[in-house]
From TrEMBL:
Annotated organism of origin: Prauserella oleivorans
PROSITE patterns reported for this sequence: HTH_GNTR
Pfam families for this protein: FCD, GntR
PANTHER family for the chain: GNTR FAMILY REGULATORY PROTEIN, TRANSCRIPTIONAL REGULATOR, GNTR FAMILY
Name of this protein: GntR family transcriptional regulator
Gene3D superfamilies in alphabetical order: GntR ligand-binding domain-like, Winged helix-like DNA-binding domain superfamily/Winged helix DNA-binding domain
Alphabetical UniProt keywords: DNA-binding, Transcription, Transcription regulation
Chain ranges of the HTH gntR-type domain: 5-72
Source superkingdom: Bacteria
SMART domains xref list: FCD, HTH_GNTR
């Protein structure tokens, strides 16, 4: 699909970011006129942007306008399975090949962020899910396989709305924070088997209740 006008491109980028970071409610009814007023533009660039978002699979056309697309429960279960396999593989490859080492500097920087989060007020659900995604991608990236990271990033993009609105992270952030710290500390200490077990338990506990 062509990008259309420069203004349509800017509207597209802005709306796409809002959809992916969870700042727009999944139940919101999206219409050209409402979005045009909100963004201070005409309906034409909004229409261009929405057409591209339909093509991206992020919104769908409805009688009243557009709605946010959420994966089916079956798809969410499949995506969770992919995420678990990919994340555990990051540690397993280091267990299988002693020559591979996690990036200790990256782990220390991430661990420092979570020490700080432990002392700070709990962030909003959308913000906390973004923190959580960064932790898991950083952990995986530290194992040295960029393709595994790309696969996990793709899963995060497709499941973010469900995790923000239906997941357990927002209810018990202190639990997730403690688990993240424990996993990173084990990795830094070279306790790979223990880190893998903690990560596996953590990922299974983070499954939204409706997926269990």
């Amino acid at each position: 699909m062509t990008r259309g006008s420069p203004l349509g491109e800017r509207v597209y980028v802005r709306l796409r970011a809002a959809l992916l970071d969870g700042t727009r409610p999944v139940t919101e009814r999206l219409t050209e006129s409402k979005l045009a007023r909100e963004l201070g533009v005409s309906r034409t660039p909004v229409r261009e942007a929405l057409t591209r978002l339909v093509s991206d699979g992020l919104v769908r056309r409805e009688d009243y306008g557009y709605s946010v697309v959420l994966p089916s429960l079956a798809t969410l279960r499949d995506l969770h399975e992919v995420a678990v396999a990919v994340e555990l593989r990051g540690i397993e490859r280091c267990l299988e090949n002693p020559a591979l080492r996690h990036d200790a500097a990256a782990l220390r920087r991430e661990l420092a962020r979570w020490y700080a989060l432990r002392e700070a007020p709990a962030p909003a659900p959308a913000e906390f899910v973004c923190h959580d995604e960064r932790f898991h991608t950083t952990l995986l990236a530290a194992s040295g396989n960029t393709e595994l990271v790309a696969a996990l990033t793709a899963v995060h993009g497709r499941t973010r709305h469900a995790r923000i609105h239906f997941g357990p992270l927002a209810e018990h952030p202190e639990t997730a924070i403690g688990e993240h710290i424990a996993i990173a500390e084990r990795l830094l200490g070279g306790e790979l088997e223990a880190a893998r077990e903690l990560l596996h338990r953590h990922l299974e506990a983070a499954v939204p209740p409706r997926l269990r």
